[in-house]
Every structure is written in C-alpha cells, then in structure tokens.
Amino acid sequence: MHIVAIAGSLRTGSLNRQLAEEAQRIVAELEPDARFTILDWSDVPIFNQDIEHPAPEAVARVRAEVLAADGVWFFTPEYNHFFPGPLKNLLDWLSRPVGPKQGQVLDSKPAAVSGISAGGTGTAVAQDHLVTLISFLNMRVMNKPRLTVPNGFTKVHDGVLELGDSLPYLERQAQAFIEFIR
Hints:
Layout: E1 2-7, H1 15-30, E2 35-38, H2 57-68, E3 71-75, H3 85-95, E4 110-116, H4 124-136, E5 140-141, E6 147-149, E7 156-157, E8 160-161, H5 167-181
Parallel strand pairs: 1-2, 1-3, 3-4, 4-5, 4-6
Antiparallel strand pairs: 7-8
C-alpha cells in the first residue's frame, strides 16, 4: 500500500506538514509494509495552458507520484475560510488529462482530509471546500472520520507539533484510511 500525503502549506515547518509527518509515523506502526510519502510539490508552476503540453518536469513528476499511489491524504490549513491557493493550483494541474490515452491522475483515488490551523474552528470550512473540489474530480472521499485540529499554535513546543489530546483522533483516521484504501 502506498499513501501520498499532500501538505497544503509549502512553509518549512508548517503545522500541516508536521501533522502529515505524524500521520506517516502512525501509518508505519499500523501497517509496516505501507509506503507513506509526503509529496514535494514546491516547484510546481502556476497553471498556464501555454505551458501545459508538454507538462513541465515538476508537474510530470507529481502526476507520476500521485498516479502510483493507492490513496491520497490531504493536510490543509485554512486561509480566509478556504484551502490555500497554491493547493488549488496543484489540483488544477492534477485534474488535467495527461494525454489522449490517459485522463487525470486523481480519478477514483481514495482520499482522506485532515488539517490544523491557528483558529478556533480548525480547518472544517476549508476541508468542506476541498472535499467539494476533489469529489468533483471523482476522488473517492473518506468523509468520516475527518480531523480538524483548532488552536494549533497552542500545540507547538519549541517549534514542534505535539498533538496531545488530538493524537487518538489522528490514529483513528489513519486506521480508517488504511481500511478504506483496501
């Protein structure tokens, strides 16, 4: 089993990247043979049909990684009650047909959604918007359980995320996603 994680924030040390790293650790414990990679998509350009064919190398690379995955786990922050613009840009690239014989790489992929934010509502609104988009792109969304961690900066000590009472919820989501992919 191969899970690709997409952290919606490109910031080094972002809370959502750290949340993805914690999920990676949990999946390794639950399913020792599983592969869990965090997608590096920082070099994906702004979508522009003028450069769509042939796809830029960074786009071809992330498409191949997503295509090879058995499931995609999104970790999104919430900016102004929405998921970040760069994540939308990545999804725009991934939603385009690869070529005349291959459609888009997200089609029918199992997907899970989590997120942590500084605000008191977690990332529930951003997750709802993200689920709307990835459902339209024909991903198979695991709607329950989802994880929203509010007040994220209260869980950071010396720059490191410590989930505390949110950890069991991430563990349950990881177990559920493994079963959902199967």
